[in-house]
Each structure stands twice: as C-alpha cells, then as structure tokens.
C-alpha cells in the first residue's frame, strides 16, 4: 500500500502534471518513498523534454536498478537528438538490456516495483529506437504480467501501430486482476479516444472528472479533453481547452497540443491562414510529428504521380 504522499506523486505523473511534480520536495533519503519519488520526478523531467535535468537527479554511484534504468533512458534521449551520437544511443540501449537481464532473477533485494520500472523504462527506449517487438516482449505483452504500467505502455504501443484490437485485449486481460485504478481508467480512456467508442463519451467524461480535481493542474489533461471534444464536433470548446493548455505550458505548447490546435484551426474554413501558420510552427519545431510526416508522405506521393500524368493535347477547334 502506497503512502498518501507517494499516491499523490503517482497520480500527478499518471495525469501528466509534470511541472507540479518536479517542483515537489523529495522525502528524506531514508524514507521508502524516496527512490520511487526520485524516479517519478526524473521521468517527469523526461516528459518535459529535459533529459539533462532527469540525469542530474540520479546519484552517479547508485546501485538501485530503477535509478540506473532512468539514467540510461535519460542518456538515450539525450543522444537521440544528435545523429552523431549513435554510439552513445547504442550504449544506453545495451545498458537497459543488461538491466532487464539483471532483474529476471529472484533477487530479494529488488522489489517488484523496481523490476517493473526497469522493464517499462527499457521498453520506452526500445520503442523510440524502432524496436517495437523487443519493447512488447520486454513489457510481457500477451502474457499475464501484473504490472499495470507495463499494460498501459503496451496499450500505447498497440494504438500507435494501429492495432486497437490488441490494445483492447490487453486492457480486458488487465481488468481480471487490476483494481479500479486511476491508470486503468486512463488506459480505457485512451482506447476510447482512438476507437471512438460510445461517441468518445467515456474518454470525455474521464478527462473532465480529473480536471475537476482542485489539487491538480495538468495541461496534458486539457489537451486530451480538447482532442475528445474535437472528435465530438465541439470545436469551440475544444479550442478553448487547447488554448488554456498552451497558456499553462507558458505559451510553448508541446507537440500534441500544437498538433491538435493545427487540426482545430483547419476545421475553421474562415481561418486558413491560422492553420497554415500553426502547421508551419509544428513542422519546424516537431518535424517527426505524425501529422507532419503523413503530409510529407502524401505530398511526395502526389508529386510522384504528377510526373506520370501526361496532359493530353488541346483539341483543335
């Protein structure tokens, strides 16, 4: 059973309240909450695209496998952005593979939470490296893993490769053993957001319920509800959520928020200039965003087909 303080930390991380989480004071180093809180704070820094801050939190001489895993993931993310650092990326991935092997044993000094954390953090790096099968295997996809965070990330991978059927199977399997956990509800909302189940009503209700929590400020929840509203055809309300999310991010929206704002602007026919401006910003700041890549592929395909199209001569009068 988690302490109330650790439950609050996990709640903030699960719901994307990363800025609030990184500003929390750490518990005493002798507290059982110390290492989990440190790991969640480091992961929050990673979610905020600040791997150097995440790495700075981890003691360089730590023997804890969860902290070593978050340090290796931080090094991978740091090297990921630089094509010249392939060797550093490969080294980080090998460190994570070694840690996965290390936690396979029955070492009583390593808790189940630490083992699960190593697998999840490793799978995140593997998936980012394009090693999808390795990531799913590391997470125990299709098996009887009783780690809800591993299930959550498995579901996200399946949704990202357009396999909502497999995502739903993972969720249904987890329901047999997991309690009505906040993370379980988030998994269901994520699947609903992709599949459109019940006209997005469940996903919209979940995000709205969490946003009503006065002790939580999460721009990512606002973005999620904005997307749900966008899919429900509630354009004005969606734009309001997305604008507020951008404000809470200090006027620098992340890729998901900016992408959703671009789509929302594109649905307003009278403001095509706004949509063009937002898409230009999205493609410049986040060139790997799926919307940008999809448009690039379709533009290339159009150009390719255009070269094969022969314009017939004009008929003589």
Question: What does this 3D model show about the protein?
Answer:
- The chain has 317 residues and is an all-alpha fold.
- It has a domain at 5-9 and 34-104 and 111-139.
- Helix content is 68%, strand content 0%.
- The protein has 17 helices and no strands.
- The protein has helices at 4-14, 18-22, 34-47, 51-57, 65-80, 86-102, 112-128, 132-139, 148-160, 164-175, 182-195, 201-211, 219-231, 235-248, 255-266, 272-285, 290-307.
- The longest helix has 18 residues, at 290-307.
- The radius of gyration is 22 Å and the shape is globular.
Please identify the structural class as seen in this structure.
Answer: mainly alpha
How big a fraction of the residues is strand? under 5%
Number of helices: 17
Number of DSSP-assigned strands: 0
Uncertain spans, ≥5 residues at pLDDT below 50? none
Round the mean pLDDT to the nearest integer and report it.
Answer: 92
Radius of gyration (CA) equals 22 Å
Q: Helicity range of the residues?
A: 55-70%
């Amino acid at each position: 059973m988690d302490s109330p303080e650790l439950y609050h930390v996990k709640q903030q991380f699960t719901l994307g309240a990363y800025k609030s989480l990184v500003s929390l004071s750490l518990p005493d180093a002798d507290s059982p909450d110390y290492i989990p809180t440190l790991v969640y704070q480091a992961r929050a820094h990673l979610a905020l695209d600040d791997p150097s801050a995440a790495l700075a939190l981890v003691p360089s001489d730590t023997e804890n496998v969860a902290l070593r895993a978050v340090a290796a993931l931080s090094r991978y993310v740091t090297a990921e952005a630089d094509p010249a650092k392939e060797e550093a990326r490969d080294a980080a991935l090998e460190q994570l593979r070694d840690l996965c092997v290390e936690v396979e044993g029955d070492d009583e000094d390593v808790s189940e939470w630490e083992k699960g954390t190593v697998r999840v953090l490793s799978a995140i790096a593997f998936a980012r490296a394009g090693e999808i099968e390795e990531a799913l295997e590391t997470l125990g996809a299709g098996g009887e893993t009783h780690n809800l965070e591993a299930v959550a990330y498995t579901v996200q991978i399946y949704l990202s490769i357009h396999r909502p059927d497999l995502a739903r199977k993972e969720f249904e399997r987890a329901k047999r053993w997991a309690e009505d956990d906040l993370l379980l509800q988030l998994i269901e909302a994520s699947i609903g957001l992709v599949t459109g189940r019940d006209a997005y009503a469940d996903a919209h209700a979940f995000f709205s319920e969490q946003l009503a929590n006065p002790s939580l400020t999460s721009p990512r929840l606002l973005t999620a509800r904005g997307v749900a509203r966008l899919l429900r055809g509630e354009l004005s309300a969606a734009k309001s959520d997305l604008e507020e999310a951008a404000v809470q991010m200090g006027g620098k929206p992340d890729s998901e928020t900016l992408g959703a704002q671009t789509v929302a602007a594109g649905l307003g026919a009278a403001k095509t200039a706004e949509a063009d401006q937002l898409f230009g910003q999205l493609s410049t700041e986040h060139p790997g965003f799926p919307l940008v890549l999809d448009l690039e592929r379709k533009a290339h395909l159009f150009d390719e087909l255009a070269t094969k199209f022969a314009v017939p001569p004009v008929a003589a009068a």
